[in-house]
Amino acid sequence: MSEFENLATTFQVTQDALLRHSARAVDSALVVRNWLFGWYLVEFENASASRADLYGKELINKLAKRLKEKGLQGISPTNLRKFREFFQAYPEIQRATSVTSLAGLGSPSFLQDSASTEKIQQTLSVESFQSMRQAAFTQIASSLPLGWSHYVELLTLDDPSERSFYEIEVASNQWSVRELQRQIASSLYHRLALSRDTNEIHRLAVEGQVVEKAADLIKNPIVLEFLGLQDRPHYSEDELESAIIDQLESFLLELGKGFLFEARQKRFTFDNDHFRVDLVFYNRLLRCYVLVDLKRDKLTHQDLGQMQMYVNYFDRHVKLSEELPTIGILLCHRKNDALVEPTLPPNANIFASKYQLYLPSKEELKAQLEIITTSLEEARHGL
């Protein structure tokens, strides 16, 4: 590439980077604005009974009409209701932000007395007042780090713990809105919670999915709706494997954090017999191999024994001394927990998960989670 082309490319790369930065800045400002608008609405509605009597249920419609007259675009009654819902979902930001600083952004605390803001401006220098406004904006923006489209999706969740989990996961994994929609639709939070005890369920809401041990990787069920296969029982293991390879990026997202693909039909020889592991992954967070075997129907004790042999081989002949023990995951169409427990040795790094080719019912998963949570709580208190 010539020096001239290098110069042109530098211009292009710089512009693209700054445009992306500008877009993020605009979206951040939009999120702060919408939260503040929601706050103003709630404060105005709650300020006095006389206002409620005066405006009643028509406040939103009247306000939208008046704002349009003032030249504010895109603020429909539907959007105003969404802004109010947004503030009500994140009220703690108000308590964490200085009221004095928020005065610079038009704090509702001063809406009842417009002279108050003027007094503040008179007693502070212009530079100090602008600095105060910027500090308030930055403080709110840092508390609401996602894009507005992400928050619109999160507001569809009624459970604050579930919403908090997805918010953390979006930020840590840089999920697009489409990826967030898919994870919510597949009930990721509830599927992870089903394999955890009470403390770990609470931890999901506070820290998101933390991968510290093999069990942290397991979801039940694993949802493969992105393969585009109809839900029927007679797919061969080769068909499932080929469909997964064709949609490998989506499959890695479904598996969870830290997965890297290594091989398909990994061959090894043990006692002069040849074996093949369907899919071999490496998890960089746990620093271990993860073997996945596909079973098209019901899991058997022979399947568990075979996976134990695969795991033993990798531990003895493949993994490095500084790496953690190999994990085996059996994906099956039907799973019998009563079979798994007596077949595997204690603390085995082998897990069986159902796969399903359709999105699970959130209501069903919630009901299962409530039963498990209640049982764990009763066991803790000796009931």
Could you describe the 3D structure shown?
The chain is of the alpha/beta class and 383 residues long. The chain folds into three domains: 3-145, no CATH class; 146-219 and 360-383, no CATH class; 222-358, 3-Layer(aba) Sandwich (Trna Endonuclease, Chain: A, domain 1). 58% of the residues lie in helices and 13% in strands. The protein contains 18 helices and six strands. It has helices at 3-47, 49-55, 59-69, 77-89, 92-96, 99-103, 114-123, 126-143, 148-154, 160-173, 177-185, 188-193, 198-207, 237-246, 248-255, 301-317, 337-343, 362-380, and strands at 222-223, 259-270, 273-283, 288-298, 327-334, 350-356. The chain has a six-stranded mixed β-sheet. A hairpin with a 2-residue loop joins strand 2 and strand 3. The radius of gyration is 27 Å and the shape is globular. The model is unreliable at 110-117 and 119-124 (pLDDT under 50).
Characteristics:
single chain, 383 residues, alpha/beta, Trna Endonuclease, Chain: A, domain 1, 3 domains, 6-stranded mixed beta sheet, 18 helices, 6 strands
